[in-house]
Amino acid sequence: MSLDVRAEFPQFTRQLRGRRLVYLDSAATTLKPRPVIEAVMRHMATETANVHRGAHQLSDEATEKFENVRERVRRFIGGVSTNEIIFTRGTTDGLNLLAQTLGRSILHMGDEIFLSQMEHHSNIVPWQMIAAEKRAVVRFIPVLDDGSLDFVAFKKMLSPRCKILSLVHLSNALGTLNPVRDFFKAARAHGVQCVLDAAQSVSVLPLDVAELGCDFLVFSGHKLFAPTGVGVLWGREDHLNLLPPYQGGGSMIAEVSEERSEYLKAPHRFEAGTPPIMEIMGLGAALDFVGHLGFDPIQAHERAIMEYAETELVKIPDLRRFGNSPQHRHIFSFLLGGSHPSDVGAILDEQGIAVRSGHHCCQPLMKRFAIPGTVRASFSIYTNEADIADLVVGIKKAKEMLT
Ligand SMILES: *Cc1c(COP(=O)(O)O)cnc(C)c1O
């Protein structure tokens, strides 16, 4: 294997049910490396102060470090200015922010919001909420049998009624990597605002907002080796400044009187209240960690693991895989014969193997395939061949017990 980073992840010192930990649920959240843990602890132990309130040295130091993370995020995704980088609580928060600001300001009765059948609930529900309020319509781009998006159907659906297209880059349920550039290019020709859910792709491939061709991009820190409670929303500066605020409070205003308030520009306009400072320090450390590894080795490792897993798993009789398109990454979703996914998940859990079973917050997708859910094994930079070998043994055992 090209990467050997397990020693950096203290969680591997743990045992699960008396066995070595086999963590195959990185699509739900990644484990945290030592530098991230240390950055969070350092802030809590000796560097605690609020940011942007000035007036003393600790606060100035914290503010400088905090704003420096914003700069590192900008570089990480190829942004032009730090004013384009908004700290959120995560992907869900970023998508709610967009539905409530972008959606609220541009949608009218009869307008259409395009999503796909493979969206995470967090990229469906916020849009349904604003659509109900604005009497707009949510439409779904179909998913083909191999787990890819139907581009032809999408082109036929496009019309001047479509105002927003919000798509997942890499499906958390299937592992499909969508050719989002093509979708955004076609949509933007119709003046559609394009949103990218990069929650899964952010840890497995280098992202460049200019190249992706989206108007907005969101991701969560905790799927990129950083703590929970922090995420990022990227948008173009002029664009963000046209949007109304999301939440009101401290730090987002230029001036407040009894009659009215004047708002700051982006990013502060969208960052009401004290931000998750220690989580953001952790995010900064996570970006450095990934930056030091480099995406070439990360992708080579992921490819090698995936190839090994595919070779071994397809040998198991009655294993039905979901998401067979050539373009997929780090996620293997399957069913075993007629067994319920949660039964398979429970038997794997008894063997100390952490996989996810269920609908993966993608109920419309499960309905599309007419299944209750899948068992999902997801891989990351610390996944090794022994993990896959244990998974194969675990699945064979589940098969024996269930058939
Ligand atoms: C995890 C995930 C989300 C939601 O992220 P949160 O961190 O729970 O807000 C959205 N979309 C995809 C593709 C995901 O994997």
Descriptors for this entry?
Aspartate Aminotransferase, domain 2, 4-stranded antiparallel beta sheet, 2 domains, binds pyridoxal-5'-phosphate, globular, 17 strands, 17% strand, 7-stranded mixed beta sheet, alpha/beta, 13 helices, 403 residues, Aspartate Aminotransferase, domain 1, 38% helix
What would you report as the Rg, rounded to the nearest angstrom? 22 Å
How many DSSP H or I helices? 13
What's the architecture of the largest domain in CATH terms? 3-Layer(aba) Sandwich
Mean pLDDT figure: 96
Q: Which regions have little confidence, pLDDT < 50, spanning 5+ residues?
A: none
CATH class division of the largest domain: Alpha Beta
The helix content, as a percent range, equals: 25-40%
Spell out the helices and strands N to C: EEEHHEHEHEHEHEHEEHEEHHEEHEEHEH
Instruction: Classify the fold: give the CATH topology of the largest domain.
Output: Aspartate Aminotransferase, domain 2
Specify the overall morphology: globular
Strand order of the largest sheet: 4-10-9-8-7-5-6
Proportion in β-strands: 15-25%
Instruction: Work out the number of β strands.
Output: 17
Main β-sheet, in a few words?
Answer: 7 strands, mixed
CATH superfamily of the largest domain: Type I PLP-dependent aspartate aminotransferase-like (Major domain)
Task: Describe the protein in words.
This protein starts with 14 loop residues before the first strand and ends with a helix. The model has no long low-confidence stretch (mean pLDDT 96). Helices cover 38% and strands 17% of the residues. It is α/β, with parallel strands linked by helices and 403 residues long. Strand 11 and strand 12 (261-263) form a beta hairpin. The chain folds into 2 domains: 6-25 and 294-402, Aspartate Aminotransferase, domain 1 (Alpha-Beta Complex); 37-291, Aspartate Aminotransferase, domain 2. The site of pyridoxal-5'-phosphate (PLP) has 14 residues, from helix 3.
